[in-house]
Amino acid sequence: MMNSKPISNRIMKVSLLLVAALVGSCNDFLNEAPDNRVALNDLDKAAQLLTNAYSVASPAFTDWMTDNTAYTRGVTIRQIHQRAFEWQDFVDDPNESDSPSFFWFQTYNAIAHANEVLAVLSSLPADTEALKQKKRAVESEARLVRAYGHFMLVNLFGKHYDASTADSDQGVPYVETPETVFIKTYKRNTVQEVYDKVEADMLKGIELVDDSFFANSGKYHFNKNAALAFATRFYLFKGNYDKVIEYANLLLGADPGSFVRDLTSEEFQAASSSVQAYPQLYSSPQQRSNLLLMRKISLVQRVDFAHGPTGDVYDEVFSGNPFGGTDERENPSFVKGQNGQFPAWYESLFERSSLNSNVGLPYHIGLMFRGEEVLLNRAEALAQKNRITEAITDIQTLANKRYSGNISTITITELRNFYGVGTIPTISNRAVVIEYVINERRREFITQGMRWYDIKRFEIPVEHVLVDGSTIELEGDDLRKVLQIPTSAIDVAGLKPNPR
Fold first, then answer.
1. pLDDT at 217 (0 to 100)
2. Is-above-0.90 flag for pTM?
């Protein structure tokens, strides 16, 4: 079994490789002397190694850069929090969770585990049909986590996919082989190259996926439903709307509402009186809507750290809806600092460094793919294809489990009236529905790290008010929406920085 030392020890152990910021590690498997390594000589060990192929870095820190966040008083503000809030390039500290460097390093570290497995898989014995089936399942998981890691990296450290420029836009290195030298030089693949490689890995993973080998619910592994959800996000970002609809249909089937947690239900209403019970229920693997769960070392779930939504932000996000009901996402919420409000969706967890220790690592269980996202992805894709009635049906499906009271069944007419555009001919039904989906996605995923991608995709400007009352702005096409790669990757690995 792999050594399960705390992540801080693993970071220190590979500090020399970290200088290059790309050279991955497989914990003790790669870093111990050969006679202490775990030999990857059977499928069980390969599958076990893949548990380390899921990055512990959360993308939710990106919410600090969005319009979901305002200056929050009475909380601990680290330099990393303020730099995110002001869209400054981050200090290169890969040990600082909730930072681009931490995300970069931990994601490439996770990818390295997948590459180790894929490199040896063909040589592992599989003499029976059952073992051959398991080998295919292991390959599927390894390809899916590798694809997902690179997809997340390119969408933080590269431009949003644009078919007209993707061939020349700088992406990230797509690493497909294990490290065999101490420091290896890399080049940045273009955004197009990264997307092509992600797609190839993802589609092969979907072809081979087999949930029968996952223990319990399988929600902590790239199961079939998670893979289909990944495909809907991938093709949405790429602008291939037919594919979004195709993969969403495969997941959602004839009863898409079954993949939406019902916040109006007696179960959720009863849990809402407890700040412990509600996030546990919300993030439970037993929720059908939770498709892929990952442990994330992070402070985003802590109400005593960092900026976050304030009462004013909440009023903006949750004010008004065309259904005439009460949005159950607004409550319950925590008080954050003196003026903050934070949804009770995260369970704040802590891993002690030892049984009797008071130090350790704060973490949460990240909901990396959810049925609600797939439904909204399909609604957006349908609107882009001008299939307005079908898109509104998906919007209604979500609304039925978000808004309590005697809510309306809406049509495009009600939606246009809600936005005050009535019969104005220059504003299309397509534009109205897409605008609603963007806003609904903001409500559905506030503090969970999804808003940043819409801000990039739709070139949405953001304003932040500083403590002195001055205002700063991130413009729609601002270069800072492409996060700067770590300085160690520039200085040692020789990668080109993003323009500023």
1. 85
2. yes
